[in-house]
């Protein structure tokens, strides 16, 4: 018998598990390690101030809190004995190379100017200064610099959360949860008048794991549990393909993240490693394949922005099935009418930016009954319960 079971071991589920265990909640994290999990593929840019959602007050407040929380969380993980979180503040350069990018560039800078009091350190820089910082970069027509932007490897950070969680008693297992078990229901109320409550989960081998609380953090696969909870979980997969590169003899560890204005990016890592991405493919379903068209798109865009990468070695391809909610915003918190059921999903392309903080928010809701911000609350889809 556990106090809580977390279904899903990506960065969001791992964060929920860590924060619950740290609060003294006896927690089991169950993960079946699906091919195409978004966390495993994520290149990892933490820069909420440059999001296209910056104009949305609610999203900006949540995104800023999430970005700010990283440094505090990293300190905690290191205090728990974790040696490598992969997180580093390296800055970001957003560069408009071609004429068609100047309009989106102006829109981005206008959003930043509207938040100037909250984003005081973002500044436009001389194109030559941009290429000085990143020798592989094509000289842009215009560029701005975000000094506090960071990079993070999603897989490494999720592993760090689980490792630190184990020091607080978190248990983990690789199994396939097939259903969430409840008692009561809308046709058979519990004695105290509530609709239903969670009693645990069942796995593919027929085992039952008893728990008072269950957190669904299954990424794009989360909707599979909607029928069990009598609620719609409006999340669909969006495929993103990325490419890992090795640039011989390049000091890439000090390079900032690069972003153009066609929704692609290049994330540098030490020792000549870089990650270029990503496609945004709707209608691909749960198909975690690398495709010829996807590689062409990613590599073509990387070389357009940074032609100095032409001699880089292609060392790996990855695919992530991003869990995109119906309104593009995470779905967090308690499921109405089912005591003990919680959701932590729907982050889309912002999983690595928002995920660790989202996990804390859901854990705080469970342990301290703290409210979840309306902008990300499950309650906004309450009319979809069934």
Automatic annotation (TrEMBL):
The keyword Oxidoreductase applies. Residues 171-193 are annotated as: Disordered. GO terms for cellular component: cytoplasm. It comes from the Archaea. Pfam families: DAO. The keyword Flavoprotein applies. Residues 3-365 form the FAD dependent oxidoreductase domain. Gene3D superfamilies: D-Amino Acid Oxidase, subunit A, domain 2 (3.30.9.10), FAD/NAD(P)-binding domain (3.50.50.60). Coiled coil: none annotated. GO terms for molecular function: oxidoreductase activity. Its cofactor is FAD. Keywords: Flavoprotein, Oxidoreductase. Belongs to the DadA oxidoreductase family. This is D-amino-acid dehydrogenase. It comes from Halorubrum cibi.
């Amino acid at each position: 018998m556990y106090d809580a079971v977390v279904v899903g071991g990506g960065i969001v589920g791992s964060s929920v598990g860590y924060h619950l265990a740290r609060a003294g909640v006896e927690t089991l994290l169950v993960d079946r390690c699906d091919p195409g999990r978004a966390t495993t593929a994520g290149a990892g840019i933490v820069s909420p101030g440059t999001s296209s959602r910056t104009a949305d007050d609610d999203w900006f407040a949540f995104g800023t809190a999430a970005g700010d929380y990283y440094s505090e969380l990293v300190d905690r993980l290191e205090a728990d004995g974790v040696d490598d979180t992969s997180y580093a503040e390296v800055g970001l350069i957003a560069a408009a190379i071609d004429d068609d990018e100047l309009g989106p560039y102006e829109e981005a800078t206008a959003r930043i100017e509207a938040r100037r009091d909250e984003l005081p350190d973002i500044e436009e820089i001389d194109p030559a200064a941009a290429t000085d910082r990143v020798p592989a970069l094509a000289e842009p027509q215009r560029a701005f610099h975000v000094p506090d932007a960071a990079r993070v490897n999603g897989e490494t950070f999720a592993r760090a959360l689980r490792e630190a969680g184990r020091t607080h008693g978190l248990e983990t297992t690789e199994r396939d949860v097939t259903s969430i078990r409840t008692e009561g229901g809308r046709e058979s109320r519990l004695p105290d008048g509530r609709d239903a409550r969670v009693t645990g989960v069942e796995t593919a081998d027929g085992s039952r794991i008893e728990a008072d609380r269950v957190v669904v953090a299954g990424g794009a696969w989360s909707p599979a549990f909607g029928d069990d909870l009598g609620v719609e979980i409006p999340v669909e997969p969006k495929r993103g393909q990325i490419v890992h590169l090795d640039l011989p003899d390049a000091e890439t560890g000090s390079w900032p993240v690069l972003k153009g204005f066609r929704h692609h990016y290049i994330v540098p890592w030490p020792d000549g490693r870089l990650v270029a991405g990503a496609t945004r493919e709707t209608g691909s379903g749960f198909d975690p394949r690398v495709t010829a068209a996807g590689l062409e798109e990613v590599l073509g865009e990387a070389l357009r922005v940074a032609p100095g990468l032409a001699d880089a070695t292609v060392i790996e391809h990855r695919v992530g099935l991003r869990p995109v909610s119906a309104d593009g915003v995470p779905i967090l918190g308690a499921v109405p009418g089912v005591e003990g059921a919680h959701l932590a999903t729907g982050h889309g392309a912002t999983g690595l930016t928002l995920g660790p903080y989202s996990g804390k928010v859901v854990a705080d809701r469970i342990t301290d009954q703290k409210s979840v911000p309306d902008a990300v609350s499950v309650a906004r889809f309450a009319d979809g319960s069934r």
